[in-house]
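user: Please review this fold.
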Amino acid sequence: MSKVRAHFKASPPASASASASPLAVQRASLLGGGAATLVQRPGEVDSLPLLIVEDRERKLLWEKTHPTVAMLTPVREPVIVGRSGGGVMLLAYDVPARVVAGRLLDADGTPFTDLVVLRSDDCQFVSAAYARRGTAVVCSRIQGSRLQFVRHDATIALPREGVPVGAVSTLPAPISLAFDTEDTLFVFQVLARSSTKDGGAADARPHLIAFRYDFAGTPLFTEGRDLGEIARAAPWTRILAESLPGGARVTLPAKSAAERPRVVEIDSDGRVHEE
């Protein structure tokens, strides 16, 4: 906490739902029980993030006060995810180069390599998820999001432009990812769905839609599965998605202050269950 205050002259939010802090916090679980924390000022493409890595006892292992150094500025939407050997992968959209850039760090913080993960003329949000075979990376775009896989040896599995996933959307929302097996993953995307009540005009509301793909980017569902409506103010927040054996769990933001968030599970066959 003191390191964050010294770096930003501000304190991080007390919880994931707190909004008083000007800082945004991401956390990623690491192999071996440790955790990585990326703290940044949201929406500031030239801000200097702080990356902190702790062991399972919450003891500091290492930190980097500017983990995006040497990437062409400005960089947009830096995210972190665990990688093999207890290391960290940092991803961000490099605006001048028009690529999603990746930086792989070993368990002791030593840079392993930098690489171009995906080429794209634009990218509103970057999302990533780790599995035994590698890391899935998605660039969210209004004109159609793209998927890439990075193997453990830092080679790229799919074409450099990635493969299309999800659906074309007018909502520039971050996509959430969760592996249900070592070779397949869910892509959760917020899409507008129209509904008509009492013969009135159609009203487009944000819904969370689940798609499923294999490691080659081949769609495994003939169509997306609708997991339900979410709060109108929520599309631009990251939906919490958790990997489960043979499925995934997502937490949908409440549609009003009087409601509680909904927890929904979907299995590999597309069956949906609400807790």
Summary: Residues 169-215+229-275 form one domain. The radius of gyration is 19 Å. Residues 2-8 form the longest helix (7 residues). The chain has a mean pLDDT of 85.
